Amino acid sequence: MRRQCELLGLNRSGIYVKRKGNGEETCENLYLMDLMDRQYTKHPSWGVKRMKFWLQRKGIRVNLKRVRRLLRLMGLEAIYPKPRLSRNNPEHRIYPYLLRRLDITRPNQVWCSDITYVRMGKGFLYLTVIMDWFSRKVLSWELSNTLDTSFCASALKEALQRYGKPEIFNTDQGSQYTSKEFTDILKDNGIDISMDGRGRALDNVFVERLWRTVKYEEVYLKEYQNPLDARTDLGEFFIHYNEERPHQGLGYMTPSEVYSGQGAGKLVNC
Questions:
Q1: What is the crossing angle of helices 64-74 and 27-42, to 10°?
Q2: Does residue 61 sit in the same domain as residue 116?
Q3: How many whole angstroms separate alpha carbon 39 and alpha carbon 250?
Q4: Does 162 share its domain with 233?
């Protein structure tokens, strides 16, 4: 375990003293979370049992209860090609999925959002983005050390203030997005609400692709020492992603070029 912590740049003294609050966990759990995050990014259909057996095959002694708790802590849930039956919070309305067979042909027609886990040297954060579906442009983003609604709502308000409003807003059925605080912002702005089928892999496909890009081209290459470092480096990355990084699916234009209408007519297939 000493070597594992050194590879992650973690303080081994945290192994035996579990810290509570502010997104902090023991060194051993942070190591497991990093392993599972990387594996989930490659194989998002993996559930608790498969993840447990994969860890055990790597020589790590871990039980289902621990794997389940850490995956929930990271906000990770296996996604499948078909929806799973589950009970929804009776206090939160679930909205229908509006994008099926919809031709998305212009910026601000559909926005989408999601949340992912970001590790640091000591602890972890949650990252949310607001993305324009057509152009793939990240319109706003926010970090938090808890999975509450406020940081998602903050990112949404910023995007609305900077870019106007979309016709449709699509998310998964996470409690942050089904909450009254979040849906009231959409309703007050006359935006149609769309929600993925629970556990569906393809309903929010472009955000899933964004997370892979963020993880492999930024997060896994860095060692954020604190939330300020994470915010600074992620801010620089999203500028690069929007303004400089060409996208194959956008005809090798950047998201900002497509969003602003530059090179109109060159975009062959989204």
A1: 70
A2: no
A3: 27
A4: yes
The verdict on 57 and 141 lying in the same domain is no
Q: How many domains, in total, are found in the chain?
A: 2
> What is the tens place of the pLDDT at every residue in 1-34?
444 444 444 333 333 333 444 445 788 888 899 8
The SS3 assignment for 234 reads: helix
In a domain, 93, yes or no: no
In a domain, 80, yes or no: no
Q: What is the CATH number of the domain that holds 215?
A: 3.30.420.10
CA dist., res. 37 & res. 183, Å (int): 29
Answer whether 173's CB lies under 8 Å from 193's CB: no
| Inter-residue contact 80 to 199 (CB < 8 Å) | yes
CA gap 152, 44 in Å, rounded: 22
CB atoms under 10 Å from CB of 96, counted, come to 10
Q: Compute CA 70 distance to the chain's CA centroid, rounded to the nearest angstrom.
A: 16
Beta-bridge mates of residue 29: none
Domain of residue 155 covers 110-260
CA 245 to chain centroid, in Å, comes to 19
User: Are 51 and 118 members of one domain?
Assistant: no
Q: How do residues 98-131 score in pLDDT, each as one tens digit? A: 998 899 999 999 999 999 989 888 888 999 999 9
Furthest-apart CA atoms within the chain: distance in Å: 59
